[in-house]
Amino acid sequence: QGASGWLSNLKLRASYGSVGNCRTGDYAWQAVYNIKKVVANGGDTFGLVQSKIGNEDLKWETTVSANIGLDAGFFDDRLTLEFDAYDKNTKGILYTPSLYLTMGTKSGATLNLASVNNRGVELSGKWSDTAGDFFYSFGGNFSFNRSLVTKYKGALTLGWNEDHTRYLNNYAQVSQGGYGGYIVEGHALGE
Q1: What is the model's pTM?
Q2: For residues 147 and 134, is the Cβ–Cβ distance under 8 A?
Q3: Phi, psi angles (nearest 5°) of residue 171
Q4: Strand pairing partners for 131?
Q5: 11-53: pLDDT as tens digits
Q6: Which of 4, 36, 38, 103 could form a disulfide with 49 if both were Cys (CB 3.0 to 4.6 A apart)?
Q7: Sign of the CA dihedral with 175 first, then 179, 180, and 186 last
Q8: 3 state SS of 47
């Protein structure tokens, strides 16, 4: 009889894929110019004014995902278990930064600024059965996820230089608020 008396279902799942994202618009790589009224030689005239900086190196944001899972059912599927492990890498995350006021009122160039790795596991189980005319079911799940910023505005430097004469801190230059905390390269999202 073997496993057929207690094992009713066993399925191994695996997936791998890549997807792109260009949510910034069709022509985000181009510089944009507007016609504005200007004063030249003591009179009103019209001229072209740059309203958005272009970026000819702009590429699609890409996400590569890998997943492996196992589904199992025992005792005529009264006990079911599911396990998933995943690894997702998003590279070239699209971002349009604000500019210093000394650059005027134009919008900054859209950049492929960041990369993030999401890795985790999920486990769920459920027991379903009957007792006479009474049907009951209970289940639970466990999950763990780690989201790590693998590329942003540069590595964080906090601490004394080699000869201990100067304390180095570039936190303001390489971080930004978001996700309930801060975004910093080499740290968890929202840490």
Answers
A1: 0.75
A2: no
A3: -55, -45
A4: 134
A5: 999 999 999 987 777 788 888 899 988 888 888 999 888 888 8
A6: 36
A7: negative
A8: strand
